Amino acid sequence: MVGTTLAEIRQHVESLASPDGPYVVHCGRTGERPIPTAGNRFESRTLAERAASAAGQYRAALRRYDPRLPHYDLVVSRDVEPRGSDGRESSDSDRDRHPGPGVGTELEERSQHSPLVEFCHRVAAAVFETLCDSGHRDVETAVMDVYFELAETVDDPDTLCLCLLESMAVELDQRLTPVEQAALFTEAATRLSPTESVGDPVSTALATLEERGLLSGYSCSPSLVDLDDGTRAVDVRLTNYALSPRNGRLPVFPLVLGVYRHESEWPLSSLRAVAVADGWELTLVHSRDSDPTDLASVPIEPEA
In what residue span(s) does the DUF7552 domain sit (predicted)? Predict the structure, then answer.
């Protein structure tokens, strides 16, 4: 099963990593550090080479879902900085080429878009793994059937990845109950690389979406807490949100997944979406007691 394989490979890479290690795995052509080795360092060149090999296997497995997943020529370097940060390129004496399965056969021509592509694949992989492990293979199959149809006609990799997320939101909404959606996102959030939460979980999740290119700006209101109802609400405004409405509903699960990743005491239970002139206004409601409503996508309400 691909999902299990992805999870096991990622855990293997993490077991090889050391926070203060001097070696990193990156693309020898672009300097990028793709998943699952992104953010990891390794104590020795040998361990880093093992991680590079595992990363090749991981991306080959993930490519079964998306044949257009970028190929990287993975190399091991000591304290390398990504190419483009200072214009320098690692010397041959300071790196060992270590191509893994499915790696190094193609240069990603549009590396400037890779943060969006990598984010979409990271989110999709976490959800796919969880669907596999939770017995929802029918949902996984339905998403991929739609996605492969789109892949035959959509050439732009950014657009195709966004279509993947949009299709996934539709299938999750139609095939899973709100309670099942909440359980799915709770588990999928644990499969994403852990990060240190700084400040409000909603703002942290939105900052990630902005950094990865899913929106160009956002603003958040202060949280409003209703002690009688046991709820906490946050109003959010999104500018240039990259995901498009489907059937009168707005895909929101990447944001939901990000909030679940950082929030435990006040689970996100419902969202409202209103179209405004320059984007979207969302109301996110956190509740400790209420059952969740739809979380993958939400109905678009008329502006008041």
Answer: 5-78
